[in-house]
Amino acid sequence: MNILKTIQVSLSALTRNRMRSFLTALGIIIGVGAVIAMVSIGEGAKQEVEERFNSMGTNLLFVRPGSRSYRGRHGGAGTYTNLKEADALAILNGCDSVQYVSPNVNTHTQVIYQNKNWNTSIYGVSDKFPEIRKWEIEEGVFFNESMVKSGQKVCVLGSEVSKNLFEGAYPIGQIIRINKIPFRVLGVLKSKGESGGWFNQDDMISIPYTTAQKRLLGINHIQSIDVSAVSMARSTEATRQIEELLRIRHKIAPGSEDDFNVRNMSEIAEGAADSTRILSILLGGIASISLLVGGIGIMNIMLVSVTERIREIGIRMSVGAREKDILFQFLTEAIVLSVMGGLLGIVLGVTGSWLISHFSGMQTLVSFGAIILAFLFSASIGIFFGFYPARKASRLNPIDALRYE
Amino acid sequence: MENNNIIQLKNLTKTYYVGETQVHALRGISHTVKNGELLAVMGPSGSGKSTLMNIVGCLDKPTSGKYFLEGKEVSTYNKNHLAGIRNKKIGFVFQNFNLLARTTTLENTELPLLYSNIPGKKVKQMAMEALSLVGLRGRELHRTNQLSGGEQQRVAIARALVNNPSILLADEPTGNLDTKTGEEIIEIFKMLNREKNITIVVVTHDPEIASIAQNQIHIRDGVIVNGKTE
User: Fold this and answer.
1) Do B83 and A317 lie within an 8 Å CB cutoff?
2) How big is the A-B interface in CB pairs under 8 Å?
3) Which of A386, A369, A387, A343 is nearest to A31 (CA)?
4) A11 touches chain B (CB under 8 A)
5) Nearest Cα residue in chain B from A314
6) Domains observed in chain B
7) HSE-CB for A327 with a 13 A CA cutoff
8) Which of A128, A258, A345, B144 is the most exposed place for a label (fewest CB within 10 A)?
9) pTM for the full model?
């Protein structure tokens, strides 16, 4: 008996019991659908996180002062004031895997334009800030190197600030007051959207860090350094180079703690990706259980079906069906059920994840790999759970099977 | 070995074990069936005739003794080999028809051919030939539950004949039919035997069948009590 005939016989047996066949396959349909939908939620979340980190630049590094300890009492991170402009320059010149640096000083203050005011973050940065953070200019220009050197009172607005202060009026060339000091608006940054919900990247104003040090804060240290590595692949190398250089510059004895720390954006991104991966595995795992239950459902129905069709098996054997013919017939029935269930499950899963993203706004990503995996899994469930009932059927004694009432 | 002897049974025994108890269903059966013969096997219930039919039909194996079918000793064959013999050499007709439910006449008739290597095109042709032999041409797409008892038995005969077997075995073929339909079935057997020269072994209580048989054997307690042989 060849494969085509076997499939034909199995199909006719399944169509003779349409309702039961459908209900049997339903377990697999829901299982596969759930796996695909759940994995797509997990993958979507992962992609969203990756996109956010990519938008900030994966070759980005942060250098921040460490926590100062005085007689065993540690202050918070950033309590050292020993990070200087010169450190930033040394990093730029001394580390070959570093592309750009931007010394940063930040503050938070009230800004005023005519009769409107707004409370926002002020970033004191260098002219390389847009390159490092992959930030594009919507209108106007960013301040240049000489403006930073001479500490000019110029600023570039985040799109949120521009919207709130100017309400559609043209901001370039206007004078706003930051902490009562007049600043000329040079440009507006392109919107980046909220980043992970913890702060709004567009609600800020960039000014030269020199200006911020002198005019707003009255300090001569810097609070952090943004560094971009020449490539993402070399960001770990850049981290090491910066650490070595700063230990020398800060005269830290071997074995003692750093008075600064360097964090690597790709490490941070990896950590975030890890947690979304756990989410994927968790969701997929829960859904897999329903797939497994679906498989057990197939086995259950196949066992009932074998008992119900003992006479049929006997008749087939009496006209010359061999053990393996019967085995393959019942195995094929189980596989056909699970494969059909798998296909319908794919349709359900893809539709389901589309509906989820459409109605909840959650980003979902139906990956081809997940579809293939779910499908193969459902087919192998058919083989695995179909085998026992099929073998039971094939081992029947023809005489007993013919007499069975 | 004479070529004319299609079935040779030599001292067949069959012993079943029911728990600790031994049940001797056959206690030494020796008999020969010639090509083209119609043999009636008779005997009270429990005498062992069904066991004998199962062994002759290759559904079961004897405990001891030898069974030659067309000169080949099939009593030594394994399960798979026996399935092949059932498929090619033997046609079965049962008392309760044993057709597949919710399946058409044609599909039932084709069933043995599904398990042989006959190409799909020829399958239908052979099935149609077998159906016209039993007078069911034109009813091939009827489902078995739409047929009368006599028609169902005719489908069963068509199914038994479709592979052109060496022998046709029938176990009480008229047992579930009324007298008139029973007679129609008997006529078919007679026609197959006389005109097509098919060897038939039939287990029966029906004196009508016995009357058309060239030979009869009576079995009691697992042995042949009177073999009327020519």
Assistant:
1) yes
2) 62
3) A343
4) no
5) B98
6) 37-62+77-228 (3.40.50.300)
7) 11
8) A258
9) 0.71
